[in-house]
Automatic annotation (TrEMBL):
<keyword id="KW-0489">Methyltransferase</keyword>
<dbReference type="InterPro" id="IPR001091">
    <property type="entry name" value="RM_Methyltransferase"/>
</dbReference>
<feature type="domain" description="DNA methylase N-4/N-6">
    <location>
        <begin position="363"/>
        <end position="429"/>
    </location>
</feature>
<protein>
    <recommendedName>
        <fullName>Methyltransferase</fullName>
        <ecNumber>2.1.1.-</ecNumber>
    </recommendedName>
</protein>
<dbReference type="Pfam" id="PF01555">
    <property type="entry name" value="N6_N4_Mtase"/>
</dbReference>
<dbReference type="InterPro" id="IPR002941">
    <property type="entry name" value="DNA_methylase_N4/N6"/>
</dbReference>
<dbReference type="GO" id="GO:0008170">
    <property type="term" value="F:N-methyltransferase activity"/>
</dbReference>
<feature type="region of interest" description="Disordered">
    <location>
        <begin position="341"/>
        <end position="371"/>
    </location>
</feature>
<keyword id="KW-0808">Transferase</keyword>
<comment type="similarity">
    <text>Belongs to the N(4)/N(6)-methyltransferase family.</text>
</comment>
<dbReference type="GO" id="GO:0003677">
    <property type="term" value="F:DNA binding"/>
</dbReference>
<feature type="domain" description="DNA methylase N-4/N-6">
    <location>
        <begin position="29"/>
        <end position="105"/>
    </location>
</feature>
<dbReference type="InterPro" id="IPR029063">
    <property type="entry name" value="SAM-dependent_MTases_sf"/>
</dbReference>
<dbReference type="GO" id="GO:0032259">
    <property type="term" value="P:methylation"/>
</dbReference>
Amino acid sequence: MQGKLITDRAALFLGDAAHVGQVLGPNSIDAIVTDPPAGIGFMGREWDEDKGGRDEWIAWLSDVMRNAMHVLKPGGHALIWALPRTSHWTTTAVENAGFEIRDIVMHLFGTGFPKSFDVSKAIDSSLGATSLRQVIRPGAKSGAAPDANTYGSGLNVGFQPRELTLPASEAARAWHGWGTALKPAAEHWILARKPLEGTVAANVQTWGTGGLNIDACRIGEDVVGWGGGGRGAGDSGTWNADACGLRGGDARPAVGRWPANVTLDEHSAELLDAQSGVLTSGANPARRGPTKARSTYKDTFAGQASCTPARGENTGGASRFFYVAKPSKAERNTGCEHLPTRITNTELPPGTKGANSPRAGANRSGAAQNHHPTVKSIALMRWLCRLITPPGGAVLDLFAGSGSTGVAALAEGFEFIGVERDPDYAAIACARIRHALGDTMNHLEEEHPFSQ
């Protein structure tokens, strides 16, 4: 591997993630947060090919993750991104490598749009009748980004809307309005753990890994988790003022809600809040006494007339229960101002797999210094890093891409090690990480500071 940037807090290497053991010693990393390919040929990219099929792709990622587990400390957690339609491939590969699958964190977002074949157009095309279709709204031809009015609020503002046409043939009219893909609005983060050495208690004391940093990742500032019928799921125990160093008249601390395995961006939050309306945390509705429906489980609710408010007074939509994050254009390009501007879809001429396949992802338009097609939100990545990394720990990203995980890890006070095989993306990641470090010099060292 070639060192692109090595400092006392961050290291970025150009090379194959399967060779991470060449630069890192065994049991030297505290957490893995990484965004591997999905095996769908995203936008025609060679690095996202399926390696020959499902079994070959799973074997490839298993080998990468097996080597990564070797450098991870016992009990260390990993969060591995996956596309929903191939998340079973990713999960199988991670499990085959020897990790324990602990959970799936689902991130919901509102900025995706469908890359779908129009079945009606396909039929007219097969009949040679495409030119006979009546144009009812002029616009960009197939492959251009849709407008905001078509696929959701605030999406792709400034892009030309797609051309809309009516079927020309009788066969096409029978299938007007039919497509081949749903709007992408979710991604998975597979939460896995390297097997513990002994118990959780023994492992965390020996290696500093094995647990999740729940309190540091709580959502909001609600008073939750103490006493009464309002105690939230996952929050056990009864409020004890003495145990918390408070006297009887002191207020309960605002600790926030237990982190969920669902996160939202602003667009998804707006949709959720529009459906939930304004809610106020507090007691459950008063019960009217025992009924047959309420006493079917060993009369659990028999005689219960009300619940005691115990969740604070926090008002808002349902999205306040979840983490909200969204990347911006400025966030993508910070630190990359000196790099050349590129358009992401310049490699996708008409007729290529990336331009036509509904499985390959939608084309991006617009020029930017950070032209990586799947830049992650730094706020989201900070939350994920914080959830699984002990204070002062080292985070490894096997597929560093444009460096979002590195920027996030450094912002949280962690050390970062990244591996990226594409020289163009490595240059972007290097620029963003150097900016995060406040470093304008490329301090290369002969020895990797994180090796053991």
